[in-house]
Amino acid sequence: MSILGTRVIRTEDPRFLTTGGVYTGDVRDKLLDGACHVHFVRSVLAHARIRSVDVSGALTAPGVVAAFTIADLADLAECKPMPMVNAQMSQPLLARDVVRFVGEPVAAVVTEQSYQGEDAASLVEIDYDELPVVVDMGVAAEDGATVLFPEAGTNVAATFGDRAALDPDLFDGCEVVVSRTIVNQRVAPAPMETRAAAAVWADGRLTAWIPNQGAQGTRRDLAGLLGLEQDAVRIITPDVGGAFGAKFGADPEHAVVCWVARTLGRPARWTETRNENMVGMTHGRAQRQTVTIGGGRDGLVTAYRLEVLQDSGAYPRIGAFLPMLTILMTPGPYGFRRAEAVGISVVTNTTPVGAYRGAGRPEATAAVERAIDLFAAEIGMDPADVRRKNLLPKFTEPHTTAFGAVYDSGDYQAALEKALDAAGYPELRKEQARRREAGEVDQLGIGLACYVEITGAGGEAGGPNENASVEVHPDGSATILTGTSPHGQGHQTVWAMLASEELGIPVDKITVKWGDTDLVPEGGGTGGSRSLQLGGAAVRQASRSLLDLARERAADELEANPADLVFDPSISAFAVAGDPDISVSLAHLAEREPLLVRAVFSQPGATFPFGAHVAVVEVDTETGKAVLRRVVTVDDAGTVINPLLAEGQRHGGIAQGAAQAFLEEVVYDEDGNPLTSTFADYPFLTAAEVPSFELAEMATPTSYNPLGAKGIGEAGTIGATPAVQNAIIDAIAHLGVRHVDMPASPQRVWQSLRAAGSLPR
Ligand code: MCN
Questions:
Q1: This model's pTM is above 0.90
Q2: Which residues of the chain have pLDDT under 50?
């Protein structure tokens, strides 16, 4: 019986649940003995010219070893923006002349003990001349706005498509056209484990423990910032307590900690506080979108336009690039006859924006799903029917959109019907009608979202790819080295399942290793829900190649023709066909010489998982409070290898997506002061506020990899946010509300009700 598709329990968990994980802050290594501690002095102003930074006071504080400013780091590179982004908007590792957001590192104080850092840092004197602050992305984009980088002469970091080339006749012939500007608010990734680093130099080589999503990318970034060859850097990835897209590569702070270790000739450590994490780690989303949708009263949408304004924060990072992905996914699963999209990214005096679970694709889904509901409300049609009318029909050959996305396989209509069925949609509408009729205080809202997203994209020439090595040992166990970098996704379990399936070695005798660049020099890490389809497929490929190699060796050993041997997984051995008593095991072959194969798996392109979410909420029409009652989803990620893990990813993603719709938001005041830099001000959903999600199954395999698998890691987040937002608005639509921006907090819902005249003023 195949182990694939079964609910193998996570082999990661016994350790986490008993002795606990070993995170970067927990790493005890002789090399790190006597480490000093780095503490960053961060800007308290959102935009100011630095007149002077005086560290002399700090140097006299107890335990202080040294203190540094950018003047000390003058020989180091700056964090350069990605290609396509204005190159003049780079970030020095510590602020040089100007600070551009509250939380920007200005100086580094190094102490014997970590607790001494904060006191010493308070003695660093920074003299600022305040500059006008630009917090709002709309203001940043205006002509005449204060510019953050005078040498760039503009706040525009990147432009996607030509606004002047938008078709003035796009909506000609439409009976109904609806347009609205909607906000996809800025959120904080807020992983349980904050950022950290532990660095040491020995024999001219840097070894750094850093929580990351791909040690190889972190090595590349750090080597670039420190002016080193990649060979001179070894990155080790301890356990990682959540990342959600924000731990790719290296941040300025990581480079400074490594530089401190080199300069002082002594290991150095850094772990940021929660407060620092909330202002210093990249944020996500942060788009303002204008959607325009037009079509007939029969529900057929004929034209759709999406205009994206992206807030990149003070220094353009991946965030500046997100509109590219949003635009790529503009029409989502719909077959609109005409669609167009443009975008710009601007800098503001706020924390830089980076990747956050879905990175660019949830924003596209949110836009089009809101647009469909606005259109449905305008023509008075059930939003499910509008979706039915516009979803692309089932296809088995790749479908290329007007935006250049090549959807590999999909059946969007079936996904919607399955979700509606599982939710009992007609009954829900009946109950809604009853409550409306009765004028009850608690109104029912039903929200839909259909989506298609892109996973496993990118990669060098030759398509998206990943490597894996598999080695069988003489004791019958095996070791897998992978270029992916799990931090909660369960690769240890699933990679072992994939190898076990081929080699007949039990899962608990297979060790999976990753995240040490000396051990695994190449790899794309974990993000963009790429890991199973690329890294998992590489494990299968390496396992099969290992069997081919073993067959040759077994044939030698048994003096048989390789073609006459059959592999019996139940004993992990080759036997002569028809004579099972004559056999040789993989373990035995490994005794003779190493039995090891490395494989690189390449995919012809990205895959496009899809699905449909139905959210049910109750909204108290007197207080504006919305409560999530149900979320029913179909998330089709092709063939599922471990349903337990795939469901876990869906559950986590749905909760995270719903939290964006309900309550998460990073807020600044008009001076650029963050108002949400603790978990007291920045709420998210806990298990107490969510129902158990109802997951319906659907699997449309992809032909792009031998597993038939697409990614599942971000699906929940992508579908849930618009479904929940649509549900909240749907609950109060009959009271005249057409739109509520996220987060649909009680206050915002209440204000919408009041504006619609359904509450006393
Ligand atoms: N899987 C499966 N069958 C499929 C697809 C996936 O059994 N058809 C399983 C895989 O074997 C794997 C898991 O589901 O165990 C997720 O696989 P995949 O979809 O390939 O996604 P990745 O492993 O590449 O994970 C990345 C994704 C992203 S992009 C973010 S952001 C995210 C997420 O995963 N961040 C997370 N999930 C997270 N979960 C935790 N706990 N913490 C984070 O920071």
A1: yes
A2: none
